[in-house]
Amino acid sequence: MSFRSYSNRQTTLERDIVLKGAGVHSGAEVSLILHPAEANSGYNFYVSGGKNAGHVPGDFRSVTNLTLCTVISGADGASVATVEHLLSALRGMGIDNADIEVDGNELPILDGSAEPFVAAIEEAGVRELDEARRYIKILRPVAVTDGGSIGEIFPYDGFRLDIEIDFPTPLIGRQRIDLDVTPASFKKHLSRARTFGFMKDVKQLWAAGRALGSSLENTVAIGEDRILNPEGLRYPDEFVRHKTLDAVGDFALAGAAILGLYRSKRPSHKLNSMMLHALYENRDAWTVVEAADKTRRHYVSPRADFGIAFATPNFAPENA
User: What's a GO biological-process term for it (predicted)?
Assistant: First the structure.
């Protein structure tokens, strides 16, 4: 199938993907293997190394830490950090089901964006499964706040993100992007945006055992008056695009693709997670539907018996 639009049937990878690299926070070298998975299984992580090996469901209720990245943990104590870039690539490119094997407690940062994952997904190929794609369809607005950060989700026939950041430095300033997310738009407009950090924060992060694997090869480094990366930025507004990439990854933990418009000012991993919890708590704000006609993109029919998470219960600076 084409990567330009979403299939109305569930998908998985055509074959395994193997990637290796350092974790941005731990600095440890890790190996990552993505396997094809069955319909309705979603994203499942299997930690075979590091501390407390075991299974970690790719579910928003598995989130245990949101400081600088998204960390998820399983019932047996296994955990894996910095999952948002991989999940962003999987969800953005329309992969619904994947088993993810990692031999450490953090995914590799690679170049700090989702582009290496996207390239690997395209090379591996996508397999359509027999089951219809399922969606969480937003029925009414829901809002959350966290200090000066605001997140709102609205009904919409598609998955649209309207993200705004505002940093006091003129190197970033106020940036906004409003995008319908499809495989084509994700690859073109979001996938290459890298994580970023301020040089003034580096010593404090290192002292806290963070950003030990960060470098100019995987992070946009912001100095007092200039971007320190010799190649500069990949997009003029790369910072807000990376925040949007992160949001796609965090929303991948919903349990199914979302039909809705998410609008956020000063976004963070915490705010994105709060939004998913607020949706779960407001059961009348959404319903689960499935694609009804493969020839049409977003025509859906209700599905009452769907046992999805909802039906049955980086380094980038956070608040921007």
Answer: lipid A biosynthetic process
pTM of the model: 0.89
Give start and end residues of each alpha helix (H) in the chain. Answer: 84-92, 115-124, 183-185, 202-207, 238-251, 269-281
- Is residue 85 marked as binding? yes
Amino acid identity for residue 102 in this structure = V
Coil, helix or strand at residue 311 = coil
Residue-wise pLDDT tens digits, 269-300:
999 999 999 999 999 999 999 997 433 333 33
Q: One of 25, 269, 277, 298 is an active-site residue; which one?
A: 269
- Give the strand order in the sheet containing 79-81: 63-65, 71-73, 79-81
Following DSSP, what letter does each residue of 212-258 receive, concatenated?
Answer: TT--TTTSEEE-SSSB-STT--SSTTHHHHHHHHHHHHHHGGGSSEE
Is 242 annotated to bind a ligand? Reply is yes
Q: Tens of pLDDT along 202-235?
A: 878 777 777 777 889 999 999 999 999 999 999 9
Specify burial of residue 225 (Cβ count, 10 A radius: 0-12, 13-18, 19+): exposed
